[in-house]
Amino acid sequence: MVFTTSFSQPDKKHVKNSKNVNVPENVYYLSMFGAISDAEIGMNSVTFGTDNTSVIQSVLNKAKTSPITVYWDGKYSVTGLKIYSNTTLIANAGCGAILRNHSDKPLIANANHSFEARKDSNIVIIGGIWNGNYYNPEIRQGAQSKFDNMHGVVSCFRFYGVDNLTVRDAILYKPATYALAAANITHVLYENIIVDVGPDPLINNDGLHIDGNSQYGVIRHCIINTHDDGIGLNADDLYMYFNEKQGLSGKDAFYTEASAGPISDILIDDITFNSSLFGIRILSGKSRVDRITIRNIKGYTKGYALVIDNYQHDPQLPTWAGPGNIGTVNVEDFDVAIHPGKIKMPNESCINVSTNVEQLILKNIKRKFFAAEEPTVYIRGKNTVIGSMEIDGYYSIDTTKQSKIDHILVEGASINQLSISNVSIRRTQTDIENNSVLLKAKSNCNINTLQFNRINTDGIASLISNTSGNITIINASNLIHTNAFGHFPFFLNNGKSDVKALTISNFYGSDLIVGGTSKIIRKSGDAF
Fold first, then answer.
1. I want to staple 225 with a disulfide (CB 3.0 to 4.6 A). Which of 156, 274, 423, 463 is the partner?
2. Count of Cβ atoms closer than 10 Å to residue 528 Cβ
3. Owning domain of residue 436
4. pTM above 0.90, yes or no
5. CB-based contact 64:92 (threshold 8 Å)
6. Contact indicator for 143, 136 with CB cutoff of 8 Å
7. 247 and 111: one domain?
8. How many angstroms from the chain centroid is the CA of residue 155?
9. 310 and 258 share a domain?
10. 96: alpha, beta or left? (left if phi > 0; alpha if psi -120 to 50)
């Protein structure tokens, strides 16, 4: 291998590698230290060639004494590697690694994993194709185990207890569990990552999964195909108690419950979901989750595109079970379609919230696909309490003939302040009667104050349908409601609940504005 004169600068110290070629000190090329590039690393590869674990690990061990830069310059197979602090690993184009059969370890994990202290720092991985080799057709039960409570999940990359972590420009294939698993991490950048879990996966194939005690993270410019959560912020995951409650032993657990803890200051930006089972999950039982920003999300999923919950299937299963402890979640520019496929997933709402949130802000939410006749935004559960919720910008075009959509459904939950503004809903089949509703309140839900402004709908039945919910104060202005086939724009039909004040102004549409059995204490506005 020949190097340019850039490697012979007079002010640089040089060292000899195993092939007797001069390179700068603390810069290492794996091929020069005996690594043999004879594996295949593509999605369906089962060609492993030479086991390069010891050779590559010997290079990575050099970071124990000084910072290193490692050039990953081949296609190698390994049984699992440890990466130390102050390591920069750069994979050449088309290079990377595949995990050998029955390794039962991550391809790469930080050396000193910890759920309490952050024992490793300054780790950078750039580029590469990293194949976790779980769905190997030659091994019926899977080529790797999935997890244990001592060593954690088996994944492509795993980081427990790291400060200043960067992973970018990488492709992650076929993990046994999560493509990238992390807990107790701070100052993190995941950028330009492609995740593809492969054909016929099993559950728990998350993409980028962050557990508790994590802060200051950016996840951006990623394309994700998973068979569970594409991106998970799980402050309180299932951990050990899940298995104990199922009658399993501790050794079968995901990993220690010490992984639970707060998550805050996370930006998720420019993500494309490509047939993922679910999109983004935020999970909190008791641990605090706060200052989460999600924006520029697109693509399609089979179930929830965004779910914020306390494990709604069974809230008692997380290690730190509770009603949810979420501060502010800010979602902006969200355009994810739901394609259920052959298996109908539960509650295929685009955005599903079933836990306590202090501030939920949704801006520029878009929907054009209605094969899953489920709500766009679904707030559910009698124990769900939202302090303030704002939907600013909701844009929907429905080209189907018979779909009946509750665009925003509040079922059983409580919302203190709800504001819905800048809405455009249009049905192209306006000559066919449709029972869609912009906002439906049911199952004894409670909305204390509701603010409507700048609403333009064409071809849906009602702006509000309150059949069995409680809405105390409604203030609505600047409304257009056309092609409604005689439905009431405001259908308030809970005779057991009074509306203290209903204000409607600047309204264009049906002369029959309000219907139903609810008693309205005070009406005002120029629409009456």
1. 274
2. 12
3. 375-528
4. yes
5. no
6. yes
7. no
8. 17
9. yes
10. left
